[in-house]
Amino acid sequence: MSAFRLPRSGAGLRSALREWLSARDDLRAEFGMGSSRPIAEQVAHEAALLQTLHDAGWTRIGWPESAGGVGGDEGGRAIVYDELAAAGIALPEAFVLLETIAPVLVRFAPELAARHLTAYLTGRQLWCQGFSEPEAGSDLASVRTRASATDGGFTLNGQKIWTTLGQFADMAMVLARTGDLCSSHRGLSMLWVDLGSPGVEIRPIRASDGRDEFAEMYFADVPVPGANLLGDLNGGWAVAMYMLQYERGMYAWLRQAALFQALNQARRTASASNADAVAAMGRAYVSLAGLRARSAGTVARLAGNEELGPEASVDKVLLSRAEQQTYEAVRLAAPDAFLLDDDPAASWARTNWFYSRAASIFGGAVEIQRTIIAERVLGMDRGANRGR
Ligand SMILES: Cc1cc2nc3c(=O)[nH]c(=O)nc-3n(C[C@H](O)[C@H](O)[C@H](O)COP(=O)(O)OP(=O)(O)OC[C@H]3O[C@@H](n4cnc5c(N)ncnc54)[C@H](O)[C@@H]3O)c2cc1C
Question: Per the residue annotation, which of 247, 307, 328, 367 is the catalytic one?
Answer without folding.
Answer: 247
